[in-house]
């Protein structure tokens, strides 16, 4: 029923091997799967690439402890929860105007099936992002692109978004809002509380106050139960809560290593509460879960926090998989919007740097050195590398067709739910 309401992050020359959009192979995309998904839990590790997953496995296995020696037994028993999912594949991530996407363009591709410019969130009919076009001009011409969450809502399913970023940040916003520039978070916040979602949780209280308005004070009149800390969230009774808005911090939520459990719930706790509320809908639900701060730690070159938040994200994956185990009509998908930081897990050695040097003034350099000079980054950025995708449940096999484009995620989810 529908409710009406010590590792170095280094920069080397990258030879991008990104893929152009591919035609779907195997089952016809858009054709409903034999056993459709009643509910979908779609989890996004923002900035999570293959190296971040490997590093998280090492950490989980105790690889950061002195004298640790990897064995088959200790490695296999400390795999990530997502490693045990039924199917796996790869996603290309480029945007409409760049081989290296940002989160706004990436989420638009996955949420709507359409490529767009970096910095644009789920709108079309524009020639650049809104800051270039000007806010008034962009708003005049921009056309909202219907998202998979909005389609699920129209089909009568309950919907929600939870994130460890500001809930108005690009990735969560891409599923419920439509703006030509990602920094217009006041407009995104307004669209959030005016949406038909049943659950929205994350950080970003500062974005809900502007022009002498407090959207958090207005929210209860729109049917929202508002909670502001972990204790209040724990006290929420899912059976009597129709709409839940949890805004726990002024900006982004804390990294997992820095989190105060009483003040801020974990991503796993938010995911569990969201499922408890959304699963009351007899028609099923569609839930977005974002582990946002993997990306932020990547930008900051903070290895420990990138790994810590990857492991915290994996705990949210476990919550989703546990629910699906009891409710097999649930499709669980885990992926990333892009990789961030260019994390390299390599030998801790300066042998190459010490062993090679240009031989200036002695004639032609006899060997063409194919290695780029290594530079320690002050701040890291997104990369063009492909990202992993894992899936279990009805329609999950479609994500295992080798390399798919991020726009195909939308089509596969749409087919799985029969939308």
Automatic annotation (TrEMBL):
- Pfam families per the record? Alk_phosphatase
Q: Tell me where on the tree of life, at the top rank, the source sits.
A: Archaea
Name the UniProt record assigns to this protein: Alkaline phosphatase family protein
Q: Which organism is it from?
A: Methanothrix harundinacea (strain 6Ac)
The protein's GO terms of the molecular function aspect are:
alkaline phosphatase activity
Q: Which Gene3D superfamilies match?
A: Alkaline Phosphatase, subunit A (3.40.720.10)
């Amino acid at each position: 029923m529908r409710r009406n309401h010590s590792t170095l992050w280094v920069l080397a020359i990258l030879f991008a091997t990104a893929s152009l959009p591919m035609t779907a192979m195997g089952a016809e995309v858009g054709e409903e799967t034999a056993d459709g998904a009643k509910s979908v839990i779609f989890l996004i590790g923002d900035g999570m690439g293959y190296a971040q997953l490997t590093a998280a496995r090492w950490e989980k296995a105790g690889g950061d402890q002195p004298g640790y020696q990897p064995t088959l037994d200790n490695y296999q028993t400390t795999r990530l929860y997502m490693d045990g999912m039924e199917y796996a594949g790869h996603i290309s991530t480029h945007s409409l105007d760049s081989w290296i996407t940002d989160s706004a363009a990436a989420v638009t591709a996955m949420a709507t099936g359409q490529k767009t410019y970096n910095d644009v969130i789920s709108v079309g009919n524009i020639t650049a992002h809104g800051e270039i076009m000007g806010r008034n001009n962009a708003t005049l011409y921009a056309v909202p692109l219907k998202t998979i969450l909005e389609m699920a809502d129209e089909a009568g399913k309950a919907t929600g978004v939870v994130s460890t970023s500001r809930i108005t940040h690009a990735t969560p916003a891409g599923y419920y809002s439509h703006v030509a520039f990602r920094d217009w978070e006041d407009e995104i916040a307004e669209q959030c509380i005016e949406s038909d979602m049943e659950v929205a949780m994350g950080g970003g209280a500062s974005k809900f106050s502007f022009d002498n308005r407090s959207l958090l004070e207005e929210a209860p009149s729109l049917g929202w139960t508002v909670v502001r800390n972990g204790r209040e969230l724990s006290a929420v009774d899912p059976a009597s809560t129709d709409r839940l808005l949890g805004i726990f911090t002024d900006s982004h939520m804390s990294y997992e290593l820095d989190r105060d459990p009483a003040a801020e719930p974990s991503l796993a706790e938010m995911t569990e509460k969201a499922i408890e509320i959304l699963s009351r809908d007899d028609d099923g639900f569609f839930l977005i879960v974002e582990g946002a701060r993997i990306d932020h730690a990547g930008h900051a070159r903070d290895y420990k926090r990138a790994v810590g938040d990857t492991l915290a994200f994996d705990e949210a994956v476990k919550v989703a998989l546990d629910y699906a185990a009891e409710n097999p009509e649930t499709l669980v998908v885990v992926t990333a919007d892009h990789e961030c930081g260019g994390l390299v897990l390599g030998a801790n050695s300066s042998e190459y740097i010490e062993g090679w040097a240009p031989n200036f003034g002695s004639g032609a350099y006899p060997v063409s050195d194919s290695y780029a000079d290594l530079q320690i980054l002050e701040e890291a950025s997104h990369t063009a590398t492909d990202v992993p995708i894992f899936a279990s449940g009805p329609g999950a096999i479609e994500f295992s067709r080798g390399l798919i484009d991020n726009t195909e995620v939308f089509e596969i989810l749409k087919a799985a739910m029969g939308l």
